[in-house]
Amino acid sequence: MQPGQMAYDRGITVFSPDGRLFQVEYAREAVKKGTTTIGLKFKNGVILMVDKRLSSKLVEPGSIEKIYDIDDYIGCATSGLVADARVLIDEARKNAQRHKLHYDENIATEMLVKNVCDYKQNYTQYGGGRPFGVALLVAGVDDLGMHLFETDPSGALVAYRATCIGSGRPVVMDIFEREFEDGMSFEAAAKLGLKALGTAIDDTLSAASVEIGVVEKGKKFRRLSDSEITKLIGKV
Amino acid sequence: MQPGQMAYDRGITVFSPDGRLFQVEYAREAVKKGTTTIGLKFKNGVILMVDKRLSSKLVEPGSIEKIYDIDDYIGCATSGLVADARVLIDEARKNAQRHKLHYDENIATEMLVKNVCDYKQNYTQYGGGRPFGVALLVAGVDDLGMHLFETDPSGALVAYRATCIGSGRPVVMDIFEREFEDGMSFEAAAKLGLKALGTAIDDTLSAASVEIGVVEKGKKFRRLSDSEITKLIGKV
Amino acid sequence: MQPGQMAYDRGITVFSPDGRLFQVEYAREAVKKGTTTIGLKFKNGVILMVDKRLSSKLVEPGSIEKIYDIDDYIGCATSGLVADARVLIDEARKNAQRHKLHYDENIATEMLVKNVCDYKQNYTQYGGGRPFGVALLVAGVDDLGMHLFETDPSGALVAYRATCIGSGRPVVMDIFEREFEDGMSFEAAAKLGLKALGTAIDDTLSAASVEIGVVEKGKKFRRLSDSEITKLIGKV
Amino acid sequence: MQPGQMAYDRGITVFSPDGRLFQVEYAREAVKKGTTTIGLKFKNGVILMVDKRLSSKLVEPGSIEKIYDIDDYIGCATSGLVADARVLIDEARKNAQRHKLHYDENIATEMLVKNVCDYKQNYTQYGGGRPFGVALLVAGVDDLGMHLFETDPSGALVAYRATCIGSGRPVVMDIFEREFEDGMSFEAAAKLGLKALGTAIDDTLSAASVEIGVVEKGKKFRRLSDSEITKLIGKV
Amino acid sequence: MQPGQMAYDRGITVFSPDGRLFQVEYAREAVKKGTTTIGLKFKNGVILMVDKRLSSKLVEPGSIEKIYDIDDYIGCATSGLVADARVLIDEARKNAQRHKLHYDENIATEMLVKNVCDYKQNYTQYGGGRPFGVALLVAGVDDLGMHLFETDPSGALVAYRATCIGSGRPVVMDIFEREFEDGMSFEAAAKLGLKALGTAIDDTLSAASVEIGVVEKGKKFRRLSDSEITKLIGKV
Amino acid sequence: MQPGQMAYDRGITVFSPDGRLFQVEYAREAVKKGTTTIGLKFKNGVILMVDKRLSSKLVEPGSIEKIYDIDDYIGCATSGLVADARVLIDEARKNAQRHKLHYDENIATEMLVKNVCDYKQNYTQYGGGRPFGVALLVAGVDDLGMHLFETDPSGALVAYRATCIGSGRPVVMDIFEREFEDGMSFEAAAKLGLKALGTAIDDTLSAASVEIGVVEKGKKFRRLSDSEITKLIGKV
Amino acid sequence: MQPGQMAYDRGITVFSPDGRLFQVEYAREAVKKGTTTIGLKFKNGVILMVDKRLSSKLVEPGSIEKIYDIDDYIGCATSGLVADARVLIDEARKNAQRHKLHYDENIATEMLVKNVCDYKQNYTQYGGGRPFGVALLVAGVDDLGMHLFETDPSGALVAYRATCIGSGRPVVMDIFEREFEDGMSFEAAAKLGLKALGTAIDDTLSAASVEIGVVEKGKKFRRLSDSEITKLIGKV
Predict the structure, then answer these.
(1) What confidence tens digit (pLDDT) does each residue in A36-60 have?
(2) pLDDT at residue F2, rounded to an integer
């Protein structure tokens, strides 16, 4: 922490002398402590992959939803405060529904992500409410191609070929930077993702501990079944 | 308390430098001091069980309601600030009523719990009102199966097979982790719950000191009668 | 006062690190300094009894109203800030009137008390207004039986067989715990109440210094006349 | 001032740890510094009496209004901040007018005083505006009898036989406690009041330095003429 | 400054422990530094008189308006913050216009002054806006007689025979107390005012440095012409 | 800075103990650092003159507008925060347009300036927004004559024969006080203004570094062309 | 940092004693850390040029949009907080659309820029929201000519012949001041811009690392293709 930082870091509507918004940066810390969440593109689409190990064996297996569908061809995974995430997912879904209602077509992935990010930005500029402590990975396929967007608490968005949010990010990004290639097959990409996730969480993966979503050209966004996941893990 | 914590822990809309929301954490402390409240699944449904010992012998026996029905097939028990709990229970009931009015069907348990949790999340993000100092156990049976949800002041929710909120949680969870099994009979589950509750409050149980609710496939949520409770205690 | 308490005790919407709401606790202190106010059940109803000694002999005797009727079969006595009490009494009366208007029947005592307590709870959760510095004893008879409720500044409510709020509470409760019995006759209960009140205020009672209200099955809530009170005191 | 008092005494919506509202108490200090204002009952009515000595001989004699009529049979005198008093007097008058308009009858004195006190109480519970720094003596005659009410900045009200607000209160109350009697004639009561007022302000009274209002059964509230006052003073 | 004063003197809605409103007192300081402004009654009316010496010889002579007409028979002069004064003058004029519109008659001087003072009082009780840093002298003639009112930032008002606001007040009041007489002729009163003003500002008067307004029974409020002023000064 | 000043200088709605409004005074500092802006009357009209030297040679010459027309016969120049100035200019223009729309005539210069100053005053009395950090010189010709007004951040306004705002004020006013004369010809006044401006900014003037506006009886407000300015400078 | 600066630098609506608005200055720091963004005019139009090097090789090449079209003949590039920029770009586009709708013509570049700057200014004067941490370069061609505007967080705007915002500004401006000439050909201007950009970011340029937009008389605003950019870079 730099000297004097505490004088500027509690107000949402306050810049520090060097032009930083500390509350936004602190919200990012909530993301850095979050679930490891991976996104990566393959030849025909985009994969999302989330660590969903249970915090206690008394938790209902299968009850934890970590990957959400936003629209027919758009899926989303999050990292950070779970209740904040639910609010943003709802916002995204309503956004997609409104577009469908008004224009009778699916919303483009980028437009949807921008709308959600504008919603987030508001919470970094106006007092009365803190920023959202959550980052999103959004995977979508539309007329403009295949997309994997990462958003952060500031409302910024970046399109990635492969990325990761949450506590495992440093490990996963390191592996992706060395091993990710454009145009991989679904299986190759999924294996790379599972390898990175397993390394990051330093644990053995199983259908119970990882959730996978995929969207592909011409196919709607869907979650993989346990048997599909087990098969993929078997191949790693 | 970590150094400097006090600089960030009084504002609802303020993240600490490591991305925590202290007011939400402090609201959880109100829950940790609350009544020991247990939920556990059995073969055909879900049991809720609450410590309702009287604070004084002048209190009207039978007057204390600790288990609430939200909808025909959904019941709820709480731990934490009692007046806050009443507000959330009302919110949940209105939610269920609105759904019935609009769609002419019972609301799904998970949807109801999410709606209540969205309501809670609001109080963690906007200034003007503190978070709710209360956690809920919600038991429900619907077309999707049997459900036992635990919610906390942040607006997070987790589905459990068996869980406990309030001051007795550490003791109860320890017992459940060792002894709970899926698919127990109603009697086996109730006995396990009573054993755990008795151990946690370190007191002899009686129909006057414990309240039990149950929801079962095809049967509406109901509170057990004193004689039913006495019979169950007798079997422990 | 615990160390650091002052850092958390001025904001209404602020939890302390151990999950307490100090402003609510301080509002309770206003009640602890209030008029000694007693409620106790007897065989067929509920008695309310209030210390109404005059602060100066220039005060108009008989002008001080300490017991209020809320509805035909519901009465109320208060302890704490007198202007706050008046506001809550008005709220309760309007509540009862609205119910009568909408449903053409008397409101149930418990529903009325819950509504007033929800009103109180609001002032413990939202900024802009302090909690009410007043507790209420509500006595009512309805289809569900005879009721004696005590509410506090947090919005919590408890049903008692016999209770006391205000400065004399420790003394009175001590006597009640030893001597109160269920199913006492009106005279026995009234004598017990007068004895406890006299002991608590350490003064000789007279029709001028105590106000008594009673509600009984089949009879509306009413205040006793001076001669009735004098007669009862004579019997103690 | 008790230790730590300053930590709690600037917020309107803040209780001190012992349940006090300091801003209300400080507003009472403004009253204690105010004009000496007396009220006392006599056989058939109520007298109000106010010190209206001029602060400078350049002030227009006769211009200072210290006694106000609220309704036909209700008069009022105040002590404390004069601009605050004017606002409350207006509020009281509008209250009486509204009642007349809605019910075609004069408002009862007690109802009027309660309404004004509810208005005052609001300013002790909600932020955004300070309490009124003014106390009122209200004298009225109605179907329920003759009334002399004293209100304070908290919104509390007490019915007196004889009372005093403002800087002279200790001296006047001392005299009243020794010499006031129920059922005095108008002249006896007026003489007692003038004697007390003269003693309190330690000055010779004249028609120019004292204002007197009176309300009597069957006669509307009115201010005494200078010659009436002079005659009364002559008799003291 | 009394010890601890700074703890209470920045909030508008905050009483000090001795019942003072420091922000109102500080606003009065702005008046005490203001232009010397005089009002005095004569046999048939009221005179207002203001020091209007230019702050620089580059200021446009004749451009400075220090005396305002509010209604046909009501004039006003101010001392304190000039922009605040303009706002209050506008408020007063609109008030007079509204009255004329509604009742088709001129507003009484006292009613107008009370309305403006109620407007001022608001700014001493509610947060969000500071009190007006300005005092007004209002001169009027109506069916009730001739009036000279002085108002201050608290919203208090006093009727004077002769008075002064602004920096010269101590000197002027001293002269008035010794030399002012009721029923003086216009010339005598004007000469007394000019003498007092000249003494207070310790400067030679001229038509360029003093502005004079007058309202007289049966004659509308008007400003004296330069030649009239010169003639009057010549007689002093 | 006087001792204790910092205790009062951050709140807009806060008077200091000696009745000053520090935030308004600080806003004046922004003006004192502003562009040197001159206004002076001549026989038939008013001249405005502004230093418009470029901050960098990459700035588009001719792009910087420093003199604005508000209405056909009213022009304006400003000094202080440029974005604040733009907002006030817009406000002034809308004001003039509204007047034209409602009354089908040009607004009088003084009325326009008062309206803008009332707008400014608001920002010195209410919280939520800081005062405008800008002063205006307004030049106008109307039925009442020729006008040159100076306004400041408090909302005060003064009519000048010749004046200056911004960093060069002390130097310019010194020259004007010695050399300005009423009824100068346009050329004489313009030369005096240019001399003063050149001295104040201590730089050689050119058509590129000074902007000049003029309004004359019977001629609309207009900016001088570069050749006119060059010619005038040649004559100095 | 000057002594005492911290006392004034956290409030948006607070001037410092020397008339500065620190929060606006701090917002400018966010711009100074931003992407190097260049604008320069050539004979027939204006070029915008932005550094768009990827922060990671996993970022989708071609996904980062750094230059935006606002209207047919107006383009824009930004530096500073990216989410803030998106909000302002949207505001600008809506502004242009509204103009087209109302007047059936393209908005003039300067009017558009002023509107956006008025929007920005608001956030420097009112509390509740921080200033925008972003600067814009706006390039446009309209009936009034070719324009290159730079705006900053205060809402100020300056027309430049060539300019730069973001971290590379000092280096780029130094080169432009020495080498920029009016009336350069498109190729000469583009080469100068690329040279300056390359020097500022101290990196080799490629079509992947620089984005270029251009608007020319008679030709709509457009982004150069990768091959056009590659060709231009080849010529440097």
Answers:
(1) 999 999 999 999 999 999 888 999 9
(2) 62
Backbone angles phi, psi at E188, to 5 degrees: -65, -45
- The whole-angstrom distance between D219's CA and the closest CA on chain C is 22
Look up residue G32 and give its DSSP letter.
H
CA distance E235 to G204: 91
CB C144 within 8 A of CB C130: no
User: Cα separation of F47 and F163, whole Å?
Assistant: 11
CB atoms within 10 A of CB G117: 24
In Å, how far are D180, E106, E140 from E111, measured between CA atoms? 39, 11, 11
The dihedral sign for the CA sequence F171, F174, F179, F182? positive
Q: How many CB atoms lie within 10 A of CB D97?
A: 13
Beta-carbon separation of A161 and G58 below 8 A: yes
- Give the CA angle between residues A112, A114, A119 to the nearest 5°: 100
- Per-residue pLDDT of E42-64, as tens digits, reads 999 999 999 999 888 999 977 77
The CATH topology of domain E27-235 is Glutamine Phosphoribosylpyrophosphate, subunit 1, domain 1 (3.60.20)
Q: Is G12 on the interface with A (CB under 8 A)?
A: yes
Q: For chain C, which ranges sit under pLDDT 50?
A: none
C49-80 as b/e, with b when 16 or more CB fall inside 10 Å?
bbbbeeeeebbbeebbebbbbbbbbbbbbbbb
DSSP state of C217: T
CA–CA gap between residue A207 and residue C165 (Å, rounded): 59
What residues of chain F, 190 to 219, have a C-beta less than 8 Å from chain E? none
- Residue E233 tokens read as 């000064």
Backbone region of residue B80 per phi and psi (left: phi > 0; alpha: psi in -120 to 50; beta: other values) = left
- Chain A to chain G Cβ contacts (< 8 Å): 103
Assign E155 a pLDDT band (cuts: 50, 70, 90): very high
Annotate chain B with three-state secondary structure. Answer: CCCCHHHCCCCCCCCCCCCCCHHHHHHHHHHHCCCCEEEEEECCEEEEEEECCCCCCCECCCCCCCEEEEECCEEEEEEECHHHHHHHHHHHHHHHHHHHHHHCCCCCHHHHHHHHHHHHHHHHHECCECCCCEEEEEEEEECCEEEEEEECCCCCEEEECEEEECCCHHHHHHHHHHHCCCCCCHHHHHHHHHHHHHHHHCCCCCCCCEEEEEEECCEEEEECCHHHHHHHHHHC
pLDDT < 50 regions, chain D = none
pLDDT in tens, D146-203: 999 999 999 999 999 999 999 999 999 999 999 999 999 999 999 999 999 999 999 9
Question: Smallest CA–CA separation between A66 and chain G, in Å?
Answer: 24
Distance CA F24, CA F13 (A): 10
Return d(Cα C128, Cα C122) in angstroms, integer: 11
Distance of alpha carbon C160 from alpha carbon C140, whole angstroms: 12
What are the residue boundaries of the structural domains of chain F, listed by start?
27-235
Task: List chain F residues with CB under 8 Å of E90.
Answer: 118
- Locate the chain D residue with the closest alpha carbon to E172: D58
CA-CA distance, E160 to E40, in Å (whole number)? 8
C1 three-class SS:
coil
| Token couple for C115 | 């509504």
Banded model confidence at residue B128, pLDDT cuts 50, 70, 90: confident
CA distance A218 to A141: 8
Contact flag G129-A13 (C-beta cutoff 8 Å): yes
Length of chain D (residues): 236
Edge-to-edge, what's the strand order for the sheet holding F45-51? F162-165, F37-42, F45-51, F210-216, F219-223
E126-138 pLDDT tens trace = 877 899 999 999 9
Evaluate whether chains E and A are touching (3 or more beta carbon pairs less than 8 Å apart): no
